[in-house]
Structure formats: C-alpha cells, structure tokens
Amino acid sequence: MRPQSTLDSTLSDTALFNAVGGHPLVSQLLIQRGFDTPKKALAFLHPESYAPSAATKLYGLSEAAELLQCAISEEQNILVWGDFDVDGQTSTSLLVAGLRTLYDAEFPQKKKTRRHKNRVRFHVPNRFNESHGIKPEYLRRWLDDKNWQPHVLLTCDTGVAEDEAINLAKDRGLTVIITDHHDLPDEFANLTPGIDPLWGLDQNGQADLQHDEIASNNRVAVRRADAIINPKFQPLEDPLRTLPGVGVAYKLMQHLFALAGHAGEEKALLDLVSLGIVADVAEQVNDVRYLLQLGLEQLRNTKRVGLLALMDVAGVTVANVSEDHIGFQIGPRMNALGRLEDATDSVELLTTTDETRARELAGKLNRLNQERRLLTSQITQAAQEMIARQPDLLNYNGLVLAHPAWHPGIVGIVASQLAEEFNKPTVLLLTPPGESARGSARSIDGVDIGGSIAACSHLLRTHGGHPGAAGVSLLPENIDAFRRELDRQILLHTTGEQSGDLIIDAELNFADINLDLLEEIQRLAPFGSGNLQPIFMSRTLQIVNDSRMGHEQQHRKFIVQQHEGGPSFPVLWFNDGAVEFPSSAVDLAYKMNINEYRGNRSIQFIYVGVRPSKPDATVLAADVTSSTRRTLRDMRFQQVVASTLPTDHAVWYAEGLNLPDSIPFAPRTQIDETAETLVLWSIPPSAQLLNALLEMVEPQNIYLCAQQTHEESASTILRTIGSMCKFTLENGCVFDLPKASAKLAITTETTRHGLRWLTCKGLIALDEWINDNEVRISSGNGSSDDAKLANTMAALEHQLEETRAFRRFYRRAKLADLGIG
Q1: What pLDDT score does 644 carry?
Q2: pLDDT (tens digit, 9 = 90+) per residue, 483-539?
Q3: Phi, psi of 820 (to 5 degrees)
Q4: Strands, DSSP E only, in 510-636?
Q5: Could you read off the pLDDT of 45-86 as tens digits, one per residue?
Q6: Which residues pair with 79 in a beta bridge?
C-alpha cells in the first residue's frame, strides 16, 4: 500500500482554501485542527453544511418520548428533577418550558386559564441540604403531597446512579424516565449473555442494543426505570457521545415535538442549550458544536424575558452575545445562585413570562455574583497565605489545603484558580468542627484527578468526578494521609501530555493584524473545549505603559509595539501579572479578541506567555537527534499536522485513534514492508511491538508524534472482544488475536486475558489454537466460574496498566532513553 504523494496533499489544501475562502490563515488553522478537506471544513464552519444525528440515534430516546407523549395526552403530572449547576438549571428549564408548550398545543382551550401549567413542576436540589442527585427523603415529600402528586419522574443531568430514589418512585407507581450524561456505573458492564453489551456490538463496534435490552437485566434501580437516555451508551466515536445534560434534554424535546406534529418549534429552546454547553465546558465537537452554533444564534434573538433581563444586568449586548459572554458574564451569575442559595430561582427566571419578576430575579443573581466574587477573593487570599506559611505543601504532586470556615459553594472556583496558578491538581477542603471534611478538586491537563482520588478510596468516605474535576469527603484525621497517597496516585494517573511547551498556532507581524483579520479568525468560533481559541506569537516587541487594573489591582494591562511608529496593541493579563518583564525586547504569545466599547471596536490581546526575544528561534521546530543509523524527529509535544509530514516511501503506524482521511494509516497487521520513513503517529502498547515495528520497517527516519490513543477500561475492552467473538461465531471464522488487538490498541497478551475472562464467564469456549495468533472458538455453556473470574480480571487489569505505564514513559522519556536511535 503506497501513501498518496505530497503533491496530492498540496492540491487538497488548495481545494480547501478555495472552498472556505477568506484569509489563508483560516485554512491553515482548519488544517491544524484536522479539518483538512473541504467537506470537513465547511461542516465545521457552517451549521447548514453539517449533517446532525437524528434524535432517535440516542438509545432509549424513542421510548422516553413515547412515554411522555402518552403522559401529556392523559394529562398526567410530570415532575422534572434537575441539578443546581448551569447545565442542570438549563436542562430543567428546557424540559419544563418544552413540556408546558406541548400541553398548550394539546389542550389549547386551557391555555388562557393556564390550568395545565401545574401539570409540569420541577425540583432543583439545594447544594447545601441535598447535594447532587435524588435524595429519597426529598423525593418522598413530592410523593406524599396531597395537593399535587407526580405520575412521571423525569430526570435531567442526573439519575443514572440513583438506585434508591428510582426504586422508591417505581414502588409508588410512577413512570421513571432518566436523562443523564454522566459516566455509567460499573454495573453496566456486568450483564448476562444474550442481552449483554458484550454481545451487543456488530463487527464494526457499533452498538445494536435497544434500550429495553440494556435496562432489562441491569442493576435493580436501572432495570426498573421505564426509559434511560445517556450518551455514554453510544459508541466511543458517536457524534452524540459528548452531549451535556442540556443537549440530551433538547434531543428528547426535538423528537417529542415531532411526534406531536410541531417539528421545528423546539428550536426556540436552543438559547438554553447554548448556555448549558458553554457553562458545562462540554467538548465542542460534532453535534455539540452544531447545537452551540444554532443556540448562539437563537440567544441573539431570544424572546425569553428572563434571559433578556439577565443580559441587561450583566451589561451584555444581546445582538452580539458570544460564548465568552456566557462563560464570563452570564454563566457565573447563574452559577452564583446555585453556589450561594437555591438554584430553583434560576429555573423560574428562565421560564417566567412576567417581566417584573424577571428583572427582580436577574437583580438577585447579579447581587449574588458580587458576593461570590468577594468570597472567592477572600478564600484565594487565605489559601495563598497558607501556602506562604507552609511552602512545603507545594512539594507534593497535588496541592491539598483545608480550612474550617471556607464556603462549600466557592472552594471549587478557588481550586481551579490555584491549579492554574501552581500548575498542580488542587483539592480544597472545608473542615467544620465535628463534621467530615469535604470539598472540591480541580486538575490540570494530563492528570486524571477523578481517577487519582478514586484510587485513594480507602481513606475517603465519598468521592466522585471525572478527569478534570471531582468532589470528596473524608474524616479530618485522614487529610495528611490523603495528601501523601494523592501525591503517589497523581503520578500513576498522569498521561504526560502536559509538556510545558507552548504550542503556537501561527506567528504574526503587527503590520498584518487588523480587524478584518480578526473577524476572519472568528469564523472558527465558538471557541472552547474541543476547539480552543488560537494562540499567536509575535517577536521583538517593546513593552510600554505597564499598569494595574481591577478593584483589587489584580489584573495587568500593558501596551506592546513591534516597531517604533508602527501599530501597538493593549494586552490584558487577568488575575496575575506579578512577573517582572525583561527590559529588552520580548516575544509574546497571546490570544486576540475584539473589544467593543460605546460603539467602538478595537483589537485587544489576552496574555498567554512571554520570553526574552529570540529572533532566530523556530517556533515549532522538532528536536532532531542524529545517529549513524537513524534520524529521530521528536514531535511528541507539538500540535502535529499530518499533511506536513512525509508520505513518499513512508509507513504510518496508528491504532486506537480518529484519523485524517488524507493519510493511509496502518495498524500493526498491515505493516509488512521496509520503508525509508516510519511515522509513529500513535504510541504502540508495548516496547516489544515498538521494536517489532522497527525491525519490520527498518527506517532511516523516524517521526515520534505520540498522538493520544483511546485507552479503554477493562469493561469496554471485554465488551468489544465479546462483539468480535459474536461476529466470529456467526460467520464461522477463526478469531485473529493481532487484528483484535490492533483494533483496541492493546497487546495480544491483553486480548488473551480477555478471551480467558469470556471463557470463565461461560460465554465462549476456546476449542483449538491453530497457532499463537489464531484460535477456533465456540459458544460457551453459560456456566460462570466465579473463582477464576476475579483472578483473570486482575491479570487483564495488570496488562492494561503495563500498557498505560509504557505510554507514559514513551511520552516523557528522553530520546536516548527510548532506545530506538
């Protein structure tokens, strides 16, 4: 197999530029982000060119919509149960508003009297009394209310792990519909043969389960729910998998409106979707980006009186509202309510039609945000003073601080600021006398803080979270032990992606920077997780007019100029700026924004980094190590663009990744020839496979790209190997270990342990080993050998940890230590 030529790549880039038009920098940035064909680029830039997934592609959604349609036609009471963060607030508001609209349409004669408004009510947990989720004692209050009793419990942004509450609702005869987006409990991997997700994937890894098959044999609570929607049921590469809670709620309403004959009217709810996506820092890819693009346009034309009032007090011009306004002005005000009081008022704000009440609630959110800022400043100052008194706290891989009087709703914000300031995962705990210590954790790139904390569970009372953030509670006497154990676990849960090298998207001369260029760059917006704002750099700048700003002089503003008499630009450095700049010229890394003030528009930079000027340095030059045998080009810490690497006489190795269409990547099973160049696009799962690739290809040039590989959990790997076994049995073929291992980017020994586990589970039988890599299998007897299962799973987990450890070493090691020169 021969890769396409460099000329073809050049023609492709020209075609992309012709398709998207505008400034060439836009095409360059698109290619760097993987949108390297006209089709991909246009779908990214223009929502009308993107083909969104049908709502019914979400498992369980059709069943949920049909149940709600039936509930509305029978005038049943629906209780929407949400959460107190912005994703939860907007999810709740969207479902309440959407369901009430459908009641209006179904019973127009009652619209004027609003008699049906009481058919849809909601509950948002109080952070201080209930925390996240569905606490049975609070649900019981609704169930025991003599004046209004629900027939349907509809969750949003919660519910997938709420065993006791779901059982309670079902025991009382309610229809239970769960919509959530949080990680699935471990029990979802332990179902029985026939309806087990192990057997529910086709040969391409696509799920073919229906919701009732998933729910019918799961943990007791989930089994009893009438419908479950969670994008984590989708395959890993499914465009719906990254939906936040508000996105799931919108998709449900989209289908429900269609069933009711009002398709398209649900678009009025998209303004709420944009708030939840940005505030929840959802990954802005695929359908999430599409919904955000549409949502921002709807927000700029919203008729929702609560949002209009909130944007007014926040000083946001409605017609120009952007993701930045949501992230820094609207979202914090909504979050302040959930952090300091009761987020119930936020749902009222977003659903009310009373302008007077809307202004009153918006004013309340504004006042609470001011209080939130004051508390944040106080706790931040206290934390910094604590570090100044005990600098040895910074000797640990994670920063753990505790104080008896810190506010529980604010510690997460401060933890995030300290994590950024000290470049360490940070945990802030409040320790009220006589109570458990509890608090929030925030991480940095490349460190899974949720996994790190989970590995300390023997010291904790409760914990939960994800790689970027987590919550935790523990006995106060365990804090020191927790700090030490967390220090060790962070090392084990670090991917090595935080190289410290700053990746620059493009270098600009000041003479080329103007509003027209910045508006071209804004075509790539909205920016956020999954689509970061570009970072630019300019060289040999002089700093002038350096000053402080902000109520507490916490921000810094300075002017930079490249040539005397040439253009100059203001630079804002938020919440920092204590560094002394060199007196000589500097190179500056920055982001660019448009500043609008009293009708005037100008360019301002946002500070990212500075260094003494190095006029002859190359921004993204690869480190090159020469030897008598091979030339190594180290690109492990760079944003690598595939089209810039050689394809002639080259073999490209990659497994376990989303891959550009323009390069013929190959897994281990398709590499069988020598070549001048070997591009190691992804990281092999073991040193043995790496050496085997080198022996097979015998390259003179090696490019180490180290693109992030999808590293699956043991349950996901077993599920996929199970689907491969199913395909093997149905097609009468032989199970091929190398092919299966390449698909999962794991070692063949890991795959062997997976087959052994399936054998111990009674799902398959290993009949005959043809050779070391091929085995004939048959259906198992269904009898599980529980005594061997645990040991086999432990061996599988050990193999996976060996792979993770090798990949961590590969990312961090010096070239000489890799042994491939």
Answers
A1: 74
A2: 999 998 988 887 644 444 577 889 999 999 999 999 999 999 999 888 989 999 999
A3: -120, 10
A4: 536-549, 555-561, 568-573, 586-597, 600-612, 623-626, 631-634
A5: 999 999 999 999 999 999 999 999 999 999 999 999 999 999
A6: 121, 153
Given strand 152-155, what is the order of strands in its sheet?
120-123, 78-81, 152-155, 175-179, 227-229
* 126, 127, 130, 133: CA torsion to nearest 10: 100
Whose CA is closest to 789, among 188, 187, 190?
Answer: 190
Spatial CB neighbours of 3, under 8 Å, sequence gap ≥ 6: 647, 648, 650, 652, 663, 664
Pick the last residue of a domain from 460, 492, 524: 492
Structure confidence at residue 10 (pLDDT): 39
Residues in a beta bridge with 549: 555
Q: What are phi and psi of 752, to 5 degrees?
A: -60, -45
DSSP string for residues in 156-214: SS--TT-HHHHHHHHHTT-EEEEE--SPPPGGGG---TTSSGGGSB-TTS-B---HHHH
Clarify whether residues 419 and 460 are in a common domain: yes
Helix H or strand E encompassing 402: strand 399-403
Residues 321 and 387 in one domain: no
- CA-closest candidate to residue 701, choices 647, 643, 742: 647
Q: The pTM is what?
A: 0.73
At position 523, the amino acid (one-letter code) is: R
Residue 486 tokens, joined: 């967390």
List of residues 6+ apart from 616 with CB closer than 8 A: none
User: Which contacts of 71-74 are long-range, i.e. CB under 8 A and separated by 24 or more positions?
Assistant: 71/151, 71/152, 71/175, 72/99, 72/102, 72/103, 72/106, 72/119, 72/260, 73/106
pLDDT digits (tens, 9 = 90+) for 597-609: 777 889 999 998 8
Angle, to 10 degrees, between the axis of helix 163-171 and the axis of helix 136-143? 20
Q: How many domains does the chain have?
A: 5
From first CA to last CA, the distance across the chain in angstroms is: 26
In angstroms, the CA 724 to CA 736 distance is 10
Q: Judge contact between 468 and 438, C-beta under 8 A.
A: no
Q: b/e map of 578-591 (b: 16 or more CB within 10 Å)? A: eeeeeeebbbbbbb
Best CA proximity match to 225, nearest among 140, 136, 157, 152 = 152
Determine the average pLDDT of the residues in 639-662. Answer: 77
Radius of gyration for the chain, computed over Cα atoms and rounded to the nearest angstrom:
28
Identify the domain boundary among 551, 579, 612: 612
Report the CATH number that the domain containing residue 449 is assigned in CATH.
3.10.310.30
Type of residue at 562: Q
Quick one: how far is CA 464 from the chain centroid? 16
Q: Note whether 403 and 339 are same-domain residues.
A: no
561 and 675 in a common domain:
no
| pLDDT grade for 562, boundaries at 50, 70 and 90 | very high
CB-based burial, 400-437: b 16+ in 10 Å, e otherwise:
bbbbeebbbbbbbbbbbbbbebeebbbbbbbbeeeebb
- In this structure, what DSSP letter does residue 326 have? I
Dist. CA 777–CA 783, nearest whole Å: 16
Identity of the amino acid at 606: I
At 428, give phi and psi (nearest 5°).
Answer: -115, 125
Domain span including residue 308: 300-375
The per-residue pLDDT for range 100-157, each reduced to its tens digit, is 999 999 887 766 555 566 899 999 999 888 888 899 999 999 999 999 999 999 999 9
